[in-house]
Amino acid sequence: MWFWFSVLALLFWSGSDLLGKIGCRNQDDRYSHLKMITAVGIIMGAHAAYSIFVGGAVVSSHVILTYLPVSLLYIVSMAFSYAAFRYIELSISSPICNSSGAIVAILVIITSGLKSASALSIIAIALVCLGTAFLGYVEAAEDEDLRAARQELSNYKYSKSPLAIILPIAYCLLDALGTFADSIVLERLDEESANCAYELTFFIVGLICLIYLLAKREKFVAKQELPKYIGGIFETVGQVFYIYALSDSEHVAYAAPIIASFCIMSVVWSRIFLKEKLSLKHYGAILLVVCGIVILGILDL
């Protein structure tokens, strides 16, 4: 079943990317990322309640506080990712965000020494870093007339902005720190309890965002909010399948690259549903990143 769990995690997470983009792409809504955090928090809170009261998961204040730094790193990184959707195409932001695996690998090498890294893993890290840097350069250096011509048929137009690259990179770094911290904290915590702690923390943060938005008298339009809540469902379901896939310890090395490559599907969905069209240089950079991500997943650093 690990294979189907991996494929389902890939599909749901790439779908969450697409729906998050649809829900947060309105450039006139400066609070769209907070509305998305609220939506995901409510969905995750509902799943945590189900896990505790129906599934029998055990969560204590000690578990929540122990896992709190990891939870906050993940949540803040996701807020940066959602904010980035106002400034950049999904097909560019998703590969950058998913480069976090290379950062985790670098942190592992730093803490464990070069002996823990094979030549292939170093090549994979180099591919991801090179591809991400090249993707950022292509995005920043692209001629405005060429950009406008390329985006002519897409649903949204984007102009140059430093935030277009800064926000996905911020997600990448924070998510990597969260993943690295996760590997350390989970040595002391049960995975199911830790996941519930994460979801409950997300729920609390979502409520704080909701209170803030209501205090700002923000309007919630059902048509604009629906994709956010469906995206929240996709994100939560993807997380469940991710845990199931990796729980089969004998096949982690196979499941990891399948799940890690969900950014490929995000690019496909953006091309189909959002009509995003990139230049050959963009696709070349994305190919480098994806190759590196898949190799890292296979090596399972």
Number of helices: 13
* Helix/strand structural class: mainly alpha
**Could you state the order of secondary-structure elements as H and E?**
HHHHHHHHHHHHH
Largest sheet: none
Structural Rg: 19 Å
Uncertain stretches of 5 or more adjacent residues? none
Helix content: over 70%
Number of strands: 0
Provide mean pLDDT, rounded: 84
Net shape: globular
The percentage of residues in β strands lies in under 5%
Distance between the termini: 23 Å
Number of structural units classed as domains = 1
Would you give an account of this structure?
- This protein has one domain.
- Helix 5 crosses helix 8 and helix 11 packs antiparallel against helix 13.
- By secondary structure, the chain is an all-alpha fold.
- The longest helix has 26 residues.
- It is globular.
- The chain is built from 13 helices and no strands.
Write the layout of secondary structure elements.
Layout: H1 2-24, H2 32-53, H3 61-84, H4 90-97, H5 100-112, H6 119-141, H7 144-150, H8 163-185, H9 191-215, H10 222-247, H11 252-260, H12 262-273, H13 280-299
Helix pairs in contact: 1-10, 1-11, 1-12, 2-3, 2-9, 2-10, 3-8, 3-9, 4-8, 4-12, 5-6, 5-8, 6-13, 10-11, 11-13
